[in-house]
TrEMBL record:
The keyword Nucleotidyltransferase does not apply. Residues 20-486 form the Aldehyde dehydrogenase domain. GO terms for molecular function: oxidoreductase activity, acting on the aldehyde or oxo group of donors, NAD or NADP as acceptor. Gene3D superfamilies: Aldehyde Dehydrogenase, Chain A, domain 1, Aldehyde Dehydrogenase, Chain A, domain 2. InterPro entries: Ald_DH/histidinol_DH, Ald_DH_C, Ald_DH_N, Aldehyde_DH_dom. The keyword Mitochondrion does not apply. This is Aldehyde dehydrogenase family protein. It comes from the Bacteria. Pfam families: Aldedh (PF00171). It comes from Streptomyces adustus. Keywords: Oxidoreductase. Belongs to the aldehyde dehydrogenase family.
Length: 490
């Protein structure tokens, strides 16, 4: 096995129909957000090449869907082994593309990707019995006991449009369950960091995935993604990204009755009740400042603090943020790396400026770190906010936390639910029964009780503008399948 260094398919070529193909649109440079240097060159596909990838996936679907689940699982297991064996060089590439810290790139990007391929290498029953029904004689036939079977069947060709904040875990979370179910895929990675996805395609190719089962096409032009979503060969679109883009994709899917799985924006509310363990709450909320530099839809960015702890919580969060080291993500003591691009840095900074104009108070942060190169944003805490401020309602996607006070428990719940999003909220309380009572009232796809940790078998997805559908664990197998019923007289 090679060391995962530069290989065919890493040098500006698309992966279409099992072949590495020269892009019609040439190549563009991928920028390291920490150094502003060039990481490599990524291919720019034409819409015609995207349609060719979709056609290749359609041709491969029949044979792959008829392959025994155990054989499909074996391919995924080999891919997991290859990715795990090359964790360090793969993580170095991910770090260069995204600006993630070394620990994050290794554990949460490449490590999670390997774990996801390993998870879906486990074959699960695709058919299960339904309770028999006794039918009396009538126009539909004689009296009979009707047996039934429900079965998951593959959807077909899945267009996987992935996010920039995790170019390993996010594509793996789509590709692995889709392939396990017998689907074929066309992956359109985010334009900021597509090189890691091509490296993943190389690992799958080495693992023995048949030609056309996995295809990767990239590009900065919106026409690339549009061609994949609109292709008549595509049966389903799995998208992770902004709500605005998700809405446009949903319009196309609706016109053509395509299945969709949407994991969109978030504005996670963290309710800190007056009996909470503040050390635990600060550590959890503080991940917004550090983890992916706040570029994660599950971040607890909107803190709702009960009056009894409001002042102490603001002080502790400010102290926590000030202690975080900002800088080169390759340095072992760095906690906060850059955001993905100069344009995104400007966007985050504009939100902080807007918050000040709206009346929020900058407790810490708010100024650009004094670094010569890189797209850095200082961890920023905005206090004395109200829920009607734009900084409290819109997804900033950066290391910015807003704090809103409330008095009674019911008021906190109402504030949390007064939001366009509903992906993951959080509750901190020393009284577990109280925390669960609050959690059950939150209109959100997930709730963390005294933790920001995840259970990777629990369903993941959002209410309202945070998405459509659920994945992760066995729920992903449902997401990438159609359910068929077979009925017979017993």
């Amino acid at each position: 096995m090679s060391d995962g260094g530069k290989q065919e398919g890493d040098g500006g070529k698309l992966f279409v129909g099992g072949a590495w193909v020269e892009p019609d649109g040439g190549c563009y440079e991928v920028t390291d957000p920490a150094t502003e240097g060039t990481v490599g060159r990524a291919p720019e596909a034409s819409p015609e090449q995207v349609r060719a990838a979709c056609a290749a996936a359609r041709e491969a679907f029949g044979p792959w869907s008829r392959t025994a689940p155990e054989e499909r699982a074996a391919v995924l297991a080999r891919a997991a082994d290859i990715i795990r064996a090359r964790l360090v060089p793969y993580a170095e590439l991910a770090q260069a593309e995204t600006g993630a810290t070394t620990a994050t790139a290794r554990a949460m990007q490449v490590g999670v990707a390997a774990a996801r391929f390993r998870r879906y290498a486990r074959v699960e029953p695709a058919e299960w019995p339904v309770q028999p029904q006794i039918n009396e004689a009538g126009p539909m036939g004689k009296a009979a006991v009707m047996g039934a079977l429900a079965a998951r069947r593959p959807v077909g060709v899945v267009a996987c449009v992935t996010s920039y904040n995790n170019p390993w875990a996010n594509p793996a979370g789509k590709i692995a369950p889709a392939l396990a179910m017998g689907n074929t895929v066309v992956v359109k990675p985010a334009p900021q960091d597509p090189l890691s996805v091509y490296r993943m395609a190389r690992a799958l190719e080495e693992a023995g995935v048949p030609r056309g089962v996995v295809n990767v096409v990239s590009g900065r032009s919106v026409a690339v993604g549009e061609a994949a979503v609109e292709s008549p060969d595509v049966d389903m679109v799995s998208f992770t990204g902004s709500t605005a883009v998700g809405q446009r994709i949903a319009e196309v899917c609706g016109r053509h009755m395509k299945r969709q799985l949407m994991e969109l924006g978030g504005k996670g509310a963290a309710l800190v009740l007056d009996d909470a363990d503040l050390d635990s709450a600060v550590a959890g909320i503080g991940t917004t400042f550090s983890f992916y530099s706040g570029q994660i839809c599950t971040a607890p960015t909107r803190v709702l603090a009960q009056r009894g702890v409001y002042g102490r919580l603001v002080d502790r969060l400010a102290g926590y943020a000030r202690r975080l080291r900002i800088g080169d993500p390759r340095e072992p003591d760095t906690v906060v790396g850059p955001v993905i691009s100069a344009a995104h840095r400007d966007r985050v900074e504009s939100y902080v400026e807007l918050g000040c104009k709206e009346g929020a108070v900058v407790v810490t942060g708010g100024e650009r770190p004094p670094l010569e190169r890189g797209f850095y944003v200082a961890p920023t805490l905005l206090a004395d906010c109200t829920n009607d401020l734009r900084v409290a309602r819109e997804e900033i996607f950066g290391p910015v936390v807003v704090v809103i006070p409330f008095d009674e428990e019911d008021e906190g719940v109402a504030l949390a639910n007064d939001c366009d999003y509903g992906l993951i909220d959080y509750v901190w309380s020393a009284d577990v029964a109280r925390a669960f009572r609050v959690a059950r009232q939150l209109r959100t796809g997930g709730v963390g009780v005294n933790t920001v940790g995840r259970n990777m078998e629990a369903p993941f997805g959002g209410f309202r503008k945070s998405g459509v559908g659920r994945d992760v664990g066995s729920y992903a197998l449902h997401a990438y399948s159609e359910v068929q019923s077979i009925v017979w007289p017993g």
